[in-house]
Each structure stands twice: as structure tokens, then as C-alpha cells.
Design goal:
Number of helices: 6
Oligomer: single chain
Strand content: under 5%
Helix content: over 70%
Number of domains: 1
Length: 167
């Protein structure tokens, strides 16, 4: 199971990297278009879709790498059962919020599909297509938070702080 979960997080990160390359390609096409007087409709919108996709798809990998910003002002002072209790409570809230975010992201994509909502930019892309990336990214983030919660419950979680990494 661990290998499958790690592969999911890594796969999402690689997909995020591909979308970052997509941002680069769209910006370069836009620049070349201005230099050589040609226009490709939607490059700005596609760059925005790719940037959003990259951001959402990278969330879980960033969490699992210990790179999310954590405010440890209170939890850093706690030890033993108090720290573990606060970690579990924090992760439970994170699971709840990530679940809500994922549910609403998928709901948004579904409603955009139902209402035939399209971009107001020159590309006129059906909005549910780029919104799927938000749903995927938040779902993988939810899985990552559940993974962290289970690891904490089983006392196998690395807290990802600088102090923990160097001990």
C-alpha cells in the first residue's frame, strides 16, 4: 500500500511539472506571437489553466515531502500525549477541510459540465475540463492527509519539521 500511495503522490507531482512546462510553452507562444505578429487564441487562458493544474496537483507531494508551511508555535512546545493529541486533532481538521475542498471542487466541475459553462476568454474552453485538475489535486491531497492521519495514529509519522529531520 505504501508504494502505491507514494507512486500516487509522485505521479501527481510529475503531472504538475508537465503542467508547469505547459505554462512555459503558452508564455513562449504568446511572446513569439507578439514578436512575429501572429496570434494564437487562448494562450493566456491555457497558461492560467496549466498554472492552476500545477498548483493543485503538487499539493499532496508537497505535504508528504514536509514542505508545507506549519506554524508550530504551540505544538512545538508540547511533548508526549499532548503533542500526539494535538497532531491527531489538527490532522482530523485537515482531513475534513481537504474532503470539503475536494467535494466542492468536483461539484464545481460537475455543475460547469451540466450548465455548459465556457470560458469568457478567446479560447471558449468548457470550464469543467480545467476544473477536473482541481478535483484531482484536492482528492490526492485528501488521500495524503488521510495517510498522514493513519501514520500518526499508528505512531509511524515523521512530523517533517527541521528538528525532526536532523535528529
Amino acid at each position: 500500500m505504501r508504494k502505491s500511495l507514494d507512486a500516487l503522490y509522485t505521479g501527481a507531482a510529475w503531472l504538475a511539472a508537465l503542467f508547469m512546462i505547459g505554462v512555459l510553452v503558452m508564455v513562449l507562444l504568446s511572446m513569439l506571437g507578439r514578436m512575429f505578429q501572429f496570434y494564437i487564441p487562448g494562450t493566456d487562458a491555457y497558461a492560467g489553466y496549466a498554472m492552476a493544474g500545477a498548483g493543485f496537483l503538487a499539493l499532496a507531494h508537497t505535504l508528504k515531502s514536509g514542505e508545507h508551511i506549519r506554524v508550530t508555535l504551540v505544538i512545538g512546545k508540547l511533548t508526549g500525549g499532548a503533542r500526539r493529541g494535538l497532531e491527531l486533532w489538527s490532522l482530523s481538521v485537515a482531513v475534513l477541510l481537504a474532503g470539503l475542498l475536494a467535494a466542492y471542487a468536483w461539484r464545481l466541475a460537475w455543475q460547469s459540465h451540466q450548465f455548459h459553462d465556457i470560458s469568457t476568454a478567446a479560447d471558449a474552453t468548457p470550464l469543467w475540463i480545467p476544473q477536473i485538475l482541481m478535483g484531482l489535486g484536492t482528492t490526492v491531497l485528501l488521500i495524503a492527509f488521510i495517510d498522514e492521519w493513519v501514520l500518526e495514529l499508528r505512531r509511524k509519522r515523521s512530523h517533517g519539521s527541521v528538528e525532526t529531520r536532523h535528529e
